[in-house]
Write a structure and sequence with these properties.
256 residues
Length: 256
Amino acid sequence: MNQETFQIFLWVMSAVASVVFIALYFVEAGYGMFRTASWGISINNKLAWALMEAPVFVVMFGLWGKSGAGFAMPAYSFFLLFQLHYLQRAFIFPFLMKGKSRMPVAIMAMGIVFNLLNGMMQAGGLFYFAPEGLYADDWAYLLKPHALLGIVLFFAGMVINLHSDYVIRHLRKPGDTKHYLPEKGLYRYVTSANYFGELVEWTGFAILTASSAAWVFVWWTFANLVPRADAIHRRYREEFGDEAVGKRKRIIPFLY
């Protein structure tokens, strides 16, 4: 792949994300509270999440090693942050899950395909096709205002995401299968605080890296999570009532 082909790849990925964004307002992705038998064969949720998220970790590691970028800063720090997220997402998060939920194989397969492509996209943007001189400042790059802002947003988003997942995991007592409205942390303001955290995290990553590939990933994150947050918001209003949900927004506090 050369620079021109990589740019076409980014445009195609952006276009597909646009289609996904529209489609998800009409079709509820069948995992979690929206899983139905119509999605076909399903497997254990923990296994599905691990299998779905691990490929991007492996691809990024392999392409970083092959690139020869080594430990050169600041690109190596970007690599570590990306891998930190997916280390947690692929190898820790699934095994913290409670209950006996299942995920359709079709959903898992789509996730695997996206993660493989995203691993190629992010590694390409950081190690193979970054604009010449963009990362020439070594450690000093990380002290630039936009980089500092990106780092703060990345870790703020990660903390929000991890805490929100913790809140969700502890809504039920052992053996309980009822649904509950989460109300702690940022769930006081939105019904999908975990998604808000992830969106903030990857926005921070894109600001930090100044990578067009990272911004395409932000668009994918938005396109995937915002329609789902809307569906969750509607489900909560149906299940718990308008009064219980109150003035909470869907995913972005005070806005949407």
